[in-house]
Amino acid sequence: MFRGFKYFWCQLTFPKSELNPQKENLFIYDYTHLLPEPLKPFHQHPLIYNFIHQFNIPIGITNIAGYWVEANPALCSLFGFTKEEFSKLTWQDLTTPENLDQELTLFQEVIKQPFSSNNKTFIFEKFYIKKDQSIFRALVHLIPIPENNSDSLYGFFVCIENLDERRGKDDEIEQTMKFIRIVLDLLPVRVFWKDTNLHYLGCNLAFAKDAGKNSAEEVIGKTDYEFPWKPEAELYRKDDREVIESGKPKIFYEEPQTTPDGKQIWLRTSKIPLLGPGGTPYGVLGMYEDITELKSLINTLNETMSLLKTLIDSAPIGIIAINEEGNIEFWNKASEEILGWNIDEVLFKSIENFIPELNKQISQSDDTHPLSEIEVVEKNKQGNLLTLRVIHRFIRFSNRDPLILVLFRDISEIKKIQEEKEQFQEQLQHTQKLESLGILSSSVAHDFNNYLMAIMGNAELAKEEINNPSAIKNYLLEMEEVIKNAGELCRQLLTFAGSKQQPHQPCNLNLIIKETENLLKVSISKKILLNLSLTPDIPFINGEIGQLRSVLLNLVINASDAIGKRSGVIHIKTGVIDFTESYIRTTWFQEGIEKKKYVYLEVSDNGCGMSPEIVSKIFDPFFTTKNFGRGLGLSTIMGILRAHNGTVKVYSEVGKGTTFKLFFPAIHEIEEQPQEQDDLTSWKSKGLILFADDEPVVLQVTTKMLEKMGFTVITARDGREALQLFNQHKHELSAVILDITMPHLDGTDVARTIRSEFPNLPIFLSSGFSQHTLNESDLDFPIQGFLTKPYNINTLSKNLKNYLQ
């Protein structure tokens, strides 16, 4: 019955009214206070009490009146009450109103029955109210408790499970399992697990597809004998038993598998034992991936590497790989053949022990210009010198230290052939030069006779005017001018005849033509007009001046021969042109020719001309249309052009003439400094000068020039006498002038001896030969100047003034 919101224990009676028999009276007697005192059975058994209180399941005890006489922490936590608060509550306080009548009915049924018939557990669901008034659904386990070993009922042992929380956890577990299933099905690897009888317990979708099934459920319960890989079934089961029995995994091994369409693929498999409580195996978990393509790639890679190694070993060039420490990591067969050491002798050893010069070159370079070629001279294992052409490159990797890759080949034979070719080319040029000199000799002799005639005539006229100083001076000036012209012609001839080839240097093509103009004029017929049309301010070219003069002279002589004995004109023209692809294709040869600016030299004539058949052969060695000569002129020009990275175009028409147009790569502009021509004839100085020359006339004239300048001069007629005079006056000398070509000792030997003892004494060398014909190895010491004969007092003063103020 209700008292507020609580139940209480009472006795109901319904006596009939004596006054009105039709009515019944209701009497309620509350006897709750007469119920037995709550017992504390668990306190009497500490072990059970402690177990209940430490148990993580909500457990409590109510007496027959419904009061909670015991509640463990889990039960208190579930409802949100403290244990003290719980002891003041009844089961009615925690029950929703909807469940009160149902629960009362259940209690009444239990109470009416003898305890012996209640020796069972009552399980039912109901709703409870927490302290915060929230409601949850619970599963209740109710066990009757006897009173003091009697048949009377003391109360109930209550175990409560929160169904809402359990269902939440079940949902969470279900969601987790679904997520795991999704992850397994998305994995690119195949996953499966079996029991100890080797029946499949589950797998992911990829495995099911491999088995020819549409879902994992179709695989469960089956064995390997029931799938396409039946031929490999025993192999798989053997591995399964091994893993289960040993309790140890088997990781990353390869095995074959037959697919549903009968093909064979390759797997990389791993298997681990599934262990239960105590470490007892209850199955095996396996996973594998299809490595058929990878295995094919690896096989292809191995075949490629094998082929690459074969190609590298068969390559005609040496290939070496060096690490950062300078140790050799690769050495191919060609390296063995070229250098003599086999791979076992060099592997992982320092390159310094075998090819030190190459190692030095590599260590001094960086990877800024990794493919630049260098040449080194090394000794092979037998001690023979080899010339190697080398390319090296720094190779960087993502997973290892970088390497230096060295490619080289033995060019010793090529160098030898090249040197022989150069010697042959020099001989051709020398032969052609001799031919040209032979042609020039008669013309030069003719011009020298004219010069001598002019000198002799002026000298005789001067004698006739002995009493007329003004007339004598004029005759002497005429003689001086003739001598200068003769000297210039002689200088050009000596320069052309010089045998020493100079290194390429920046030079001005216009200046070369002007300096050679007199020589060109005497080399052609007097009936032929030489016309110069030189474009001003043309860029410099990089060339060898002697060879360029030879080219110019050969072309002019050929033009003169083409005109013959009749009158004609030879035009010499210079200019600049920008090469294009289309223009390059019209030149005689295109190797090494680039799209850039070129300076051209054009020599044209109005001679007999040539047919196309003749033009096609003109650069062939020994080909000539003349009745004399060896046919080396134009072939020599071709060699010189190639050496200057140039090319040529030829225009010719029978009866009209021929034009040769030569092209040379232009280089940057070089500003020429104008040389001041000071008049130093009146310059004076003093001191003692040693002068040596084997020509008495030169000795006499130069001595007078020096004395006029104010110097005291001691003279020698040969090198031995010059050295004796030097030893006698070494501490008094201000300067020494030595002719190079003298008896006993030449001037260079005397100068070398003097220089070794007096490094600061001014020394000047003199010669009738051009300075360009000197052998540079003979001048391994410094000199202060070179006097080319004939020289005048102004030239002599200029040289001395720079060192003798």
Summary tags:
805 residues; five-stranded antiparallel beta sheet
- Average pLDDT, rounded to a whole number, is 80
Strand adjacency order, main sheet: 6-5-9-8-7
Chain oligomer state = single chain
The value of Rg in angstroms is 60 Å
Strand content: 25-35%
* DSSP strand tally: 31
Explain what you see.
The chain starts with a strand and ends with a helix. Helix 13 packs across helix 14 and helix 20 runs parallel beside helix 21. The longest helix is centred in the middle third of the chain and has 53 residues. The N terminus is likely disordered. It has 22 helices and 31 strands. It is α+β, with helices and mostly antiparallel strands and 805 residues long. The strands form 8 sheets. Strands 6-5-9-8-7 form a 5-stranded antiparallel sheet. 38% of the residues lie in helices and 25% in strands.
Summary, kept brief:
The chain is an alpha+beta fold. Helices cover 38% and strands 25% of the residues.
Give a topology summary.
Blueprint: E1 2-3, E2 6-7, E3 10-13, E4 27-30, H1 46-54, E5 59-63, E6 68-71, H2 73-79, H3 83-86, H4 97-112, E7 122-129, E8 135-146, E9 153-162, H5 163-186, E10 190-195, E11 200-203, H6 205-210, H7 233-246, E12 250-258, E13 264-275, E14 281-290, H8 292-314, E15 318-323, E16 328-331, H9 333-339, H10 343-346, H11 356-363, E17 373-379, E18 385-395, E19 403-410, H12 412-464, H13 469-497, E20 505-507, H14 509-523, E21 528-533, E22 541-543, H15 545-563, E23 568-578, H16 581-584, E24 597-605, H17 612-615, H18 633-643, E25 647-653, E26 657-665, E27 688-692, H19 696-709, E28 712-716, H20 719-729, E29 733-739, H21 747-757, E30 763-767, E31 785-788, H22 793-801
Parallel strand pairs: 21-23, 27-28, 27-29, 29-30, 30-31
Antiparallel strand pairs: 1-2, 3-4, 5-6, 5-9, 7-8, 8-9, 10-11, 10-14, 12-13, 13-14, 15-16, 15-19, 17-18, 18-19, 20-22, 23-24, 24-26, 25-26
